[in-house]
Amino acid sequence: MKAIRRFTVRPVLPEPLRPLSDLARNLRWSWHPETRDLFQSVDPERWAASDGDPVRLLGSVRPARLAELAEDRRFLRRLTAVCDALNDYLTGERWYQAHPGGLPAAIAYFSPEFGITAALPQYSGGLGILAGDHLKAASDLGVPLIGVGLLYRHGYFRQSLSRDGWQQEHYPVLDPNELPVSLLKEEDGSPAYVALALPGGRRLRARIWLAQVGRVPLLMLDSDVEDNDPGERGVTDRLYGGGSEHRLLQEMLLGIGGGRGGRTYCRLTGHPAPEVFHTNEGHAGFLGLERIAELCDEQRLDFDSALEAVRAGTVFTTHTPVPAGIDRFDRELVAHHFGADAELPGIDVERVLRLGMETYPGGEPNLFNMAVMGLRLAQRANGVSLLHGQVSREMFSGLWPGFDPEEVPITSVTNGVHAPTWVAPEVFRLGARQVGAQRAEDVLSVGGSERWDAVADIPDQEVWDLRRDLREQLVQEVRSRLRASWRQRGAGTAELGWIDSVLDPDVLTIGFARRVPSYKRLTLMLRDRDRLMELLLHPERPVQIVVAGKAHPADDGGKRLVQELVRFADDPRVRGRIVFLPNYDMAMAQKLYPGCDIWLNNPLRPLEACGTSGMKAALNGCLNLSVLDGWWDEWFQPDFGWAIPTADGAGTDPDHRDDVEAAALYDLLEQRVAPRFYERGRQGLPDRWIEMVRQTLMRLGPKVLAGRMVRDYVERLYAPAAVAHRALDADTARDLADWKERVRASWHQVAVEHVETSAATATAELGSTLALRVHVRLGSLGPDDVEVQALSGRVDSEDRITEAVTVALKPAGGADQEGRWVYEGPLTLDRTGPFGYTVRVLPAHRLLASAAELGLVAVPSQELVEAAGVLMR
């Protein structure tokens, strides 16, 4: 029978054990081994049954056991030590506090999902895991971050398989009272709310749940409140669920409601107000509109002035390398939800729409693009690897017409992963024996070293024993999960005897686990099934493969890929060597990365923005075998991994490309990877393999840390954004907005009219310098409004300048009677071979973060270019 009402019954802890509740409510336990060990010792069996969730554990422990622990002096001493350690962590000075001044007082970090721990299932894949790692690393570094997201009552789905291998989704109801979160409350003890105005006079209200991630508060908005109508109650039902309007309301609640929730939190707690706002992907882009409305209301700024003030303190991170991965809404749908009868009534709807419309060549003018809005609302933007930054500059170059893609103002900060979360305890202990536990913890959380040289002193035998132990743990984990999966698929106990011999702890183990969009190519390994079978069943050098991944519930193509892989793995001939594990999540991942010898990644290049799973594997001594995409394109070296050759020419047929790249993968496994794993040196150990493991840890380890990533954000983006934010008080914001309006209105008058040099011939000697004179017309603008530049460098066969060097030219005197200015400067011929130059005029202002910010540039006319030709050949 079903219950007619549900309660959460909280345990009453004996007074000496009350600190356990505080420990359970701070999610630092999810990456702090001593805290987890303490909870495990409360009741090892119930700890396992609760999947390592302290809140569930404390709700299930028998009162007699609690009474026993309350009298256990040894346990109480451990409890005191762990509580003292948490207090030191929360209050002590860390990297940020010791950093030179000028850093922001606080940063608000908005994301639609956060992967902190499996006990708080509010994530679907890499974007959420990255956001969770960002918060945890910020906590370790002492960065005053406030996380803002949504609390989904069904989270993301749980995955199981039908008997024929088809993905099935289950959406368990999450009760916030049973999660490691607490309600944010007003001073009178009532819940704090935010509200959004909806068309037709309706309102969307949301409570604010608080998760404490070490030092970092994470605010999560929840629309499942009784005051809302049923439709509004369901806005935060599922992560990435529903149709267009449902998604639009989620993103309005995240951005606009999240902005209001952040202000409420700071008002109630005294937390410093954020000076910098970081939007993780375009989902939270409406935050910028909320801040514009706030400035218009509180400081009486007009829209354009408020826009400049908001842009100065905003950082936008794009994570997708393909337009299809961006949320886009119909223009009329967005217009319906803003304006006089809906949200932000003080802002003209046309101004809202103008921020997101694809009004550039190749865009769809009736679509509202969340990433485009994010870029227009942020003065600083970045991709998540060097290659992805390049791809993003090309993808969004239409927003900056007249500029080469490399000049588009989108930089890159390569992702990292939170090592204390992802490094297996056994790996940590091995490092701690070399350098001490405290130093090992600092190395993993804060980073800063270029190399981990202490790894060189670990004996080969210890490295190999560790790898074998981790592989054996994975084999046991796989068998347990596989047995549970087959029972869900309807198999009886008598059918499952074969599972006891699945995988072998002495066989080369390959891992492949990620979301299942088509570009990640889950089934590339199946391209030549006979060849794969030969690899799996090789009599002397066999391999075994562990696969996991979820397809989006609406992606039948992805589900077919899962089914194809599952059916192959079900074949009795190979099922002892390849397995598919359903319901890939953080808990599974923490077992999978350490136990694999090879981490496989074979996306269609360059569609993998970063691909952090291989980083987590590397931190555990697992070697990467990957297409040169994302972070691997940046840091690959043959000393610590393998690169799968790609056939990514523009004219390559997709099927042929898959055939070529699959064949390259099989060749690598047959000829290089497996032989190296199985070859033995004089001591009976795979010396060359162990050396690759050592190089992975020594040289890759320091690079892939989330601590390094967050430090990069602080120094390269947050600190400059804070300086820009402080510089734009109300009057300065008005002045900047007025200047931009004047420049845009006058730019049609700006022209390059004549260019001359001192060159008499078409050849010159390396190192010589030419005098350059440029005549420009500035119209109603003056020299203080512009910069005239000479760009020079080697040219290709079409006279395009590559690796350009830019030199600012100086005005020589005043304007002539016709309003023309003469600019002069030297042009140094510093490269041999074909050499060329051009000139251009750009807007210039001390508060611009980039010369391309306005998207305005004046260059010589085609007639002038043809008359000048290329300077040197």
Automatic annotation (TrEMBL):
<dbReference type="InterPro" id="IPR052182">
    <property type="entry name" value="Glycogen/Maltodextrin_Phosph"/>
</dbReference>
<dbReference type="InterPro" id="IPR011834">
    <property type="entry name" value="Agluc_phsphrylas"/>
</dbReference>
<keyword id="KW-0663">Pyridoxal phosphate</keyword>
<protein>
    <recommendedName>
        <fullName>glycogen phosphorylase</fullName>
        <ecNumber>2.4.1.1</ecNumber>
    </recommendedName>
</protein>
<dbReference type="Pfam" id="PF11897">
    <property type="entry name" value="DUF3417"/>
</dbReference>
<keyword id="KW-0119">Carbohydrate metabolism</keyword>
<comment type="similarity">
    <text>Belongs to the glycogen phosphorylase family.</text>
</comment>
<keyword id="KW-0328">Glycosyltransferase</keyword>
<keyword id="KW-0021">Allosteric enzyme</keyword>
<feature type="domain" description="DUF3417">
    <location>
        <begin position="13"/>
        <end position="120"/>
    </location>
</feature>
<comment type="function">
    <text>Phosphorylase is an important allosteric enzyme in carbohydrate metabolism. Enzymes from different sources differ in their regulatory mechanisms and in their natural substrates. However, all known phosphorylases share catalytic and structural properties.</text>
</comment>
<dbReference type="InterPro" id="IPR035090">
    <property type="entry name" value="Pyridoxal_P_attach_site"/>
</dbReference>
<dbReference type="InterPro" id="IPR000811">
    <property type="entry name" value="Glyco_trans_35"/>
</dbReference>
<dbReference type="InterPro" id="IPR024517">
    <property type="entry name" value="Glycogen_phosphorylase_DUF3417"/>
</dbReference>
<dbReference type="Pfam" id="PF00343">
    <property type="entry name" value="Phosphorylase"/>
</dbReference>
<keyword id="KW-0808">Transferase</keyword>
